[in-house]
Amino acid sequence: MASAGNNTYNVEVNPSYPTCYGIDNVVSVAYTTRTDALGGFSNYGAIHVALAAPGDQIYTTFAASDSFYYPFGGLNLAGTSFSAPYVSGACALLMAQYPADTYRDTITRLLSATDPLPSLAGKCRTGGRLNLRKALRTILVATIPATNTGPFQFACPAG
Q: pLDDT tens, position by position, for the chain (159 residues)?
């Protein structure tokens, strides 16, 4: 996972790294608000940013003490550094649920199960926000190459 960044950049015009590396195992994440809008300072990109996840008004721990939490005093924490861990956790759960999947299968499951949002159209490759429940229920369909020119046949072993 990679945070898309928090500069309000279109990464297709102003590249950000690791988001813009041409590596198939980099999944870049933008952030959304509670109203499913693209986060106010989230980077975005129709090619290099894969999806978005919640990243606004996050309640989290802080290193000041063992019982110190944000937000305090109305401070609003937001950004892609909060949304990317949601996607990392989702991938970990998908890998546990489907241990035989390759990393590409896991990414395909993840990206094919996003919730499309009008606010994300053209802002990320999927145009959608993370939906873990849907991803855990996805079925990958494999294409089986034809072995001959005859009709398709299906055989079930006797059981």
A: 999 999 999 999 999 999 999 899 999 999 999 999 999 999 999 999 999 999 998 887 777 778 777 765 556 688 999 999 999 999 999 999 999 999 999 999 999 999 999 999 999 999 999 999 999 997 766 665 666 665 555 555 554
- Predicted structure pTM score: 0.82
List own/partner pairs for 129-137 with CB under 8 A and 24 or more apart. Answer: 129/32, 129/36, 129/51, 129/52, 129/53, 129/54, 130/51, 130/52, 130/53, 130/54, 130/86, 130/87, 130/90, 132/90, 132/93, 135/90, 135/94, 135/109, 135/110, 136/93, 136/94, 136/97, 137/113
